[in-house]
Q: What sequence folds into this?
């Protein structure tokens, strides 16, 4: 089981490297809001990755093979969703990062805790929604699962899924940290960061749409 867990950690981290909606959301949250919100986005995205990889473990691969038209439809849906999200991100205007205080008197510890929890939960829902609304991700996980753990039993599959979630959390936390540090160093000049990644996401969405069109044409 340890081997499958480690493979899952590596897969969770490596699949987060390419441009994707959660990476964009983590960067946007770290730049426009707070580091805590960015961590929440990453946790939500990791749970979404765990959900899709879990479906792969449960045996959705035969369904995709039986109905070859399903993956292109998933690509098309994801392409539309990511195209809209990338466009909105690229056009986002720089705003003052959200803070827990401001010019008002410092809040009490309980207020800070509630605000931090609210930021964390808000980010979590965003990250989870972005992965759930990206059904093409399940195709990626099915390919990984069929190549890496074709003979895994249930417990090994669960170990792989847990590893995927931890690997994803680790990668997204690194992205959040680097963006947060970059924002502090660059200041207002960091406004180009979410715009660049938003444009990258638009190109990725166009790629998914092209794959869907290629199948039906």
A:
């Amino acid at each position: 089981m340890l081997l499958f867990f480690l493979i899952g950690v590596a897969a969770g981290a490596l699949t987060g490297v390419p441009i994707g909606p959660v990476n964009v959301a983590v960067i946007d949250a770290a730049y426009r809001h707070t580091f805590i919100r960015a961590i929440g986005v990453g946790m939500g995205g990791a749970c979404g990755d765990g959900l899709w990889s879990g479906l792969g473990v449960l045996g959705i691969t035969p369904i995709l093979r039986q109905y070859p038209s399903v993956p292109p439809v998933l690509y098309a849906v994801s392409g539309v969703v990511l195209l809209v999200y990338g466009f909105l991100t690229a056009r986002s205007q720089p705003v003052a990062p959200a803070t827990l205080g401001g010019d008002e008197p410092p809040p009490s510890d309980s207020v800070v805790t509630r605000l931090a929890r609210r930021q964390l939960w808000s980010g979590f829902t965003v990250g989870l929604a972005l992965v759930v609304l990206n059904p093409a991700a399940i195709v990626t996980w099915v390919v990984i699962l069929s190549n890496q753990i074709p003979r895994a039993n249930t417990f090994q599959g669960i170990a792989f899924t847990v590893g995927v979630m931890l690997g994803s959390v680790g990668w997204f936390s690194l992205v959040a940290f680097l963006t947060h540090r970059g924002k502090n160093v660059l200041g207002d000049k960091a406004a180009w960061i979410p715009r660049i990644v938003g444009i990258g996401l638009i190109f990725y969405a166009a790629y998914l749409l092209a794959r869907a069109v290629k199948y039906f044409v």
In short: Residues 97-103 have pLDDT under 50 and may be disordered. Residues 154-186 form the longest helix (33 residues).
